[in-house]
Amino acid sequence: MKHLDPTLQPVFEEILARNPGEAEFHQATRELLDSLGPVVARHPEYTDAAIIRRVCEPERQIIFRVPWVDDAGQVQLNRGFRVEFNSALGPYKGGLRFHPSVYLGIIKFLGFEQIFKNALTGMPIGGGKGGSDFDPKGRSDAEVMRFCQSFMTELYRHIGEYTDVPAGDIGVGGREIGYLFGQYKRITNRYESGVLTGKGIGWGGSLVRTEATGYGTVFFAGEILKARGSSFDGKTVVVSGSGNVATYAAEKAAALGATVIACSDSSGYVVDEKGLDLDLLKEVKQVRRERLSSYAEARESARFVATTTGGAVWDVPCDIALPCATQNELDGDHALALVRNGCTVVAEGANMPCTPEAVKVFAEAGVAFAPGKAANAGGVATSALEMQQNASRDSWSFAHTEARLEEIMVGIHARCLETADTYGAPGNYVAGANIAGFIQVADAMLALGVI
Ligand code: NDP
């Protein structure tokens, strides 16, 4: 690990001491601090006002009990979280994750990333994140509904369209947002559409929100390719995951002329040299909620490789890799395999899917690497567009909303490159994203005083 700037080392040590046992949060803060050396050198006012120390401390952390009754009549117990990290730019904004691995450290890492991602979009939104260790897998719709209602029965008092606006993430899609919004509406007796994003199209949702994170990631990767005189056309692409982000990243990459030959879930991966059949993938994962092996069973050109074999989707040779599943899913060895097989662009659709070792491998091999806080910002940007539509009681067409999304992603790409140039790291998207996002938040925090 490279040495931190001497001004930043004590800040990182303080983070480690104040947040014991939160490995993902340590990783995310360290990654930001790694980029900030040239910033503190140029802006002593940030250090004087303890901006970096303050931005690493959540404004508020809420942890609550979520009891609910399963279909067998048994009482089940989960833990709910909402970390309201930073509201210098606007109301806290960030998704809810329902996954058994969720604990405070994961929610804090996600909330921290969200601050700078949201700043990069240029929209007036702060950063937050929440979720629960509830596992929706294998649960009936009725069980998911009762869980969501219990979760919202506590969460409702902390959120609001001017306070904190949650959305989806892993394990939280349209079904869950519906149950959560229904309970919020019932408790408050207000049809406050702007309190949650990712709503259904018929009741306050925005066209393109479902597709936005995946599409946005591909728009960002497309800009990287363009800067290198290339495009998606004729390229092979591997995505990881087969949920919301992965599916729509695959859809847009295919629409731009690429062949998407592999995707994964936690049980394994499928390789389909003919290109993924996305209708079948959606049917298997979103409608039937089955494992990925069902895709291979239904399609002759596909084969399924189970996680238990020890292989990974990154073993499949490709030109472009889009990790879209979860944090730390692509390590140094996976990165070496990708480089060996000729991959030249990696764009993170998920949050922090590449380990620091993997990022180092990409940098050394000259692979263009786009960090999630820039590449997957299209999801939250379109959530902000959904809030705009809710506020004006309007709904925009698919084409208009997609054009706005693309414009935002092109803008973030340009801003990352310009900032990287200005701070002596040309072509480095990690430095560009971290510095541009941080400066926007830091300047707002300076203006708002010590709060
Ligand atoms: P989904 O729940 O729709 O899909 C998640 C996918 O990742 C599934 O295929 C799941 O497999 C797989 N996955 C999850 N955990 C693991 C694990 N521990 N090991 C292997 N595979 C795993 O989530 P999203 O697509 O919404 O989110 C994916 C990533 O994108 C997350 O990092 C999220 O934070 C990030 N993101 C999402 C945004 C959004 O708008 N939804 C916005 C910005 C970022 P399985 O089905 O087996 O669980």
TrEMBL record:
The keyword Oxidoreductase applies. CDD domains: NAD_bind_2_Glu_DH. Keywords: Oxidoreductase. Residues 206-449 form the Glutamate/phenylalanine/leucine/valine/L-tryptophan dehydrogenase C-terminal domain. SUPFAM superfamilies: Aminoacid dehydrogenase-like, N-terminal domain, NAD(P)-binding Rossmann-fold domains. It comes from the Bacteria. InterPro entries: Aminoacid_DH-like_N_sf (IPR046346), Glu/Leu/Phe/Val/Trp_DH (IPR006095), Glu/Leu/Phe/Val/Trp_DH_C (IPR006096), Glu/Leu/Phe/Val/Trp_DH_dimer (IPR006097), Glu_DH (IPR014362), Glu_Leu_Phe_Val_DH (IPR050724), NAD(P)-bd_dom_sf (IPR036291), NAD_bind_Glu_DH (IPR033922). NCBIfam families: PRK09414.1. Belongs to the Glu/Leu/Phe/Val dehydrogenases family. PANTHER family: NADP-SPECIFIC GLUTAMATE DEHYDROGENASE 1-RELATED (PTHR43571:SF1). Homohexamer. This is Glutamate dehydrogenase. It comes from Nocardioides daeguensis.
